[in-house]
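Schema walkthrough. Field components (list of strings):
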Amino acid sequence: MEGRIRGQLLKGTTTLLVLTVLRDGELYGYEIAQRIRERSGGAFVPSEGSLYPALHSLEAAGALEASWQASDRGPRRRYYKITKTGLGMLREHSQEWATFSLGMARAVGGADQ
Amino acid sequence: MTVDLLAIPLSCGFFALVVAAVLLVRRSERRLGRGPGAPSAPRMPGPDGGTDPIAAYLDRMSGELALPAADVAEVRAELAGHLADSIASLEAEGLDRETAIREALGRLGPAVELGRQIRAAHQSTRRLLAGAGGGVFAAGGGFVLGYIGGGFAVAAVAVGIAALMAGLAAAGLHLPDLLQDPHGIGGNSILIGLTTTIAAWAATRYAVRTSASVSHRTPHSVAVVWAAAGGLGFGWWALFGLHGYQSWSTVAAELCIPVAAVAGAFVRIERPLPHSPRWAVVVGLIAFIVVPLVLFAAVGSSGSGSGSGQAASFQASDLHLDTVAPMAPAQWLPDQIMTSGADADGASGATVINAQRISGQSTLPIAPLLSNWRDLRFESWHALPEDEPGPGGIDTHYTSPFAVQPAALNGESLDATFDFGRLRDAGSWWVLLTAVGPDGHRYRLDEFGYGGSSDFSGSAWDWLMAPQ
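Field assembly_structure (string):
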């Protein structure tokens, strides 16, 4: 698909993407995947197989809290909410990503020149 | 009666430990659920009437989770919800149901790999450490709770047996004294051993259930660790830590402790712990404090027996002393008679038997008397129990002494030390001084000897290593 980012590049970004979309409010797994897709304009489509291990790992680390809630579409869903620890983690990952992307832009831009 | 002030904070500490451990275990039980044997969600038939591919996928994924039952159920429900959304979305895009299911499952990737990744996410090192700490804490609370409950259970059984024995005795049926416990303290040691056995079982059970829940692992996967820790810890305690009266029955009861600890970690460990009503916990804890105080006030202190010296009121012939050896002929043992006594060795607690040559009130030189004699020794023989009617004396069922010590000349007395408290089955004993006379036969030099009774006192290891 044109405009989609390769899976290898997405590796390691799932945590940042998940924390980013959850900063705006509680979501359940399927919604998180959809929200990432929407916010990136379809550029990021996280592997659903890696999404749930990432969510459970963040929950184990205390970055997320999960609770079962009734859903307006179908059965009860497991909603995830970002915690104070998660917000701190999000700041760190955002800074790392900014540094990385700036460096990459410089390096790739320099190569083009 | 004085109450040690330390008992108050200790009791409060035990109380707090038990309450916290019970709360922790109750919370753990919710996560562990009913175990893998619990019925799973009903399977939906597939489009072709065969096995539902979604349920089959979730089954394969669940097989890799190795998490507590409640976690497995949550992961399954979460992924089932995800698949339902994903399939509905794909069907809305125009795919038929079968293709939509295949596509949705494909997006999640291989079931086995997904299960492994979710398990790895759950079973972090942090949770493992928390599980270990929680397990130790729960083991402490479980031990105290098990000790309280076990104490009541064992006491109830003991009362029942005592009532049965009394009933049989009233009916004229006397059972053999299996405990052979002349001072009545062997029963206490057995009660303590059995109570501790129940407590050890509860301790490892609580530890496994709690650490499995907190570390997000199955009880089976952590049971090996707790069985090893419980077996070694309680095994060490049973062998070396529990000191007191010992016999075959008490050692057997004490060796049950590590076995119970291992069994508590393994046997049907997936089964939930029995739910104790809150009132039962409160009543048990109050009883744990009140009952010992009442018993302490009622029983008081009792001394341990040794050295009765009851021989003085009987003739030598009443005591069957000829079983040991005939009395020395008067021509080889002039009018002065050897008399024996006993002292406790202050350092070791052993019994020091001594014999002196006394005429009237004076102690005479002993060396001249011994010129006719060689191989002087003190012999300890099994004696009739002190609490039986009659003068006591040598138990004629035995034909040899159970302990022999050479008589060492110490000033004007002959001494030998017997550590009756470290001799198995010493029970009631009688000690006599014997020697080989000029005719080559062994005689006893002391007319009466000295009697008493002792209980083996030490650890199970001491008893197992003690000479027969």
